[in-house]
Amino acid sequence: MGERTVGGPVAAISPVQQMLASGTGALLTSLFVTPLDVVKIRLQAQQTPFHQALGRESAPWGGVGRSSKWKCFLYCNSLMDHIYVCQNGTSCSSWYRTPTHFSGTLDAFVKITRHEGLRSLWSGLPPTLVMAVPATVIYFTCYDQLRDFLWFGLGLQGCHVPLLAGGLARLGAVTVISPLELVRTKMQSRKLSYSELRVCIRSAVAQSGMLSLWRGWGPTVLRDVPFSALYWFNYELVKAQLCEQYAMPKADFSISFTAGAVSGAVAAVLTLPFDVVKTRRQIQLGEMDSLGVSRKGTSSTWHIMKDIWSALGYRGLFAGFLPRVIKVAPACAVMISSYEFGKAFFQKVNLDRQRLAP
């Protein structure tokens, strides 16, 4: 599925095959992007050690009064955000605490590999594979199913179809994964066993209801749904234009890669303010979890955005512009080209089966 003709999808593949293709793409993207983010965080760490950053980063939107003991930082490899919790900079992941000095990105790659081993470049990969791969599988499979249903089932035409399908698919994926992400964050921040975690979740549900399992859902939706809608809108548009320009009936790997990079960069820039707010809110909630502080007083997304605008102006809402584009564009390119390659593989397998069938 995924290619349009007058009659319908070409060489339709099953949802299971779509899941396998998207799962493989998510795995490859994780393997490719994780080292880039590990190096980025290590470079940031030597510039502003946690014991210096504790008081600096919590205001004015931190909202946590007792931040002298705990500090959270956000690690994102473009598939998934990870909250790590540090106590006076001592309980961080070992790869973050390592005091090696780096003069630049290339130097960091060389020294990490030489002194800490190649595996250190993929620190944080296990939680990504556990959480991000299922989320990506749900997201990409739902997108293809929804898009083809709108195109061929309802007969809708126009560029708004990928926009709508992308937004709805991401909304569904975020809603399904959000409680699991909350559980993972609690286990990581409080070092809870499974039995303690069960008691903690039951207590939260009893006090605040089932909706408490979807804390942080709003900021995630505000960032990810517009990003996905814009991404798929631009991807289908750029892919169609490139196919037309090079007189190709179907997108090959290079076209998918280029369209994915361009559309990912555009969506990353346009949704950057929501990404900044989501990062602040995730760190805020992570610190409050680690401190055992009630979340009732947490700021809303729009309140955090207003505070950032008041303190730093529009530049504050577009902080991290270049790093986000540099990271998101290749991640989107690798993910979508791998996914399209996987779908093309299964389409060929299905066509071969049809030819061989009596």
Structure description:
The protein is mainly alpha-helical and 358 residues long. Helix content is 69%, strand content 4%. The protein has 13 helices and 2 strands. Strands 1-2 form a two-stranded antiparallel ribbon. Helix 9 runs antiparallel to helix 13. It is globular, with a radius of gyration of 22 Å. Residues 5-10 and 48-70 have low confidence and may be disordered. This is Mitochondrial glutathione transporter SLC25A39. It catalyses: glutathione(in) = glutathione(out).
Short précis:
The protein is mainly alpha-helical and 358 residues long.
- How would you sum up the global shape? globular
Q: What integer is the average pLDDT?
A: 75
N-end to C-end Cα span: 24 Å
Fold-level CATH name? Mitochondrial carrier fold
CATH class: Mainly Alpha
Count of helix runs: 13
Low-pLDDT residue intervals, each spanning 5 or more residues = 5-10, 48-70
Tell me the strand percentage band.
Answer: under 5%
Strand line-up across the major sheet: 1-2
Secondary structure class reads mainly alpha
- Fraction of helical residues: 55-70%
N to C succession of SSEs: HHEEHHHHHHHHHHH
List the SSEs and their pairings.
Layout (H helix, E strand, L loop, with lengths): L14 H33 L2 H4 L16 E7 L4 E7 L6 H4 L7 H12 L8 H29 L6 H31 L3 H15 L8 H29 L7 H18 L1 H20 L9 H12 L1 H4 L3 H36 L2
Antiparallel strand pairs: 1-2
Main location: mitochondrion
Subcellular location: Mitochondrion inner membrane
Family: Belongs to the mitochondrial carrier (TC 2.A.29) family.
